[in-house]
Write a structure and sequence with these properties.
The chain has 88 residues and is α+β, with helices and mostly antiparallel strands. It has four helices and three strands; from the N terminus they run αβααββα. A three-stranded antiparallel β-sheet has the order 1-3-2. A hairpin with a 2-residue loop joins strand 2 and strand 3.
Length: 88
């Protein structure tokens, strides 16, 4: 039998580091994210995003016609703070 032990704090740290690295790369390429970018970058479904943080007043977003836009830098900063508060 194989037994695997996972340090949850270390896993969370590794996840946040990879997320930050990936988002830094995206910040250099885009000024704004759209909903597809947000889903792709967070690896969360649109429904989960809406449930977890979309309606948080600290989450900056703009609606242009039918399209939602999220400033890349501010969105990245919000997501890093949000991820720090989640328990894994």
């Amino acid at each position: 039998m194989i037994e695997i032990k996972l340090d949850e704090n270390e896993a969370k740290k590794m996840y946040i580091e990879k997320l930050e690295e990936h988002m830094n790369k995206m910040d250099k390429e885009l000024l704004f994210w759209d909903t597809d970018d947000l889903v792709k970058q967070t690896r969360l479904s649109w429904g989960t995003i809406q449930k977890e943080f979309f309606y948080d007043p600290k989450f900056i977003k703009y609606k242009l016609g039918r399209k939602w836009l999220f400033p890349a830098k501010e969105t990245r900063e919000f997501l890093m703070e949000w991820a720090e508060t989640k328990r894994y």
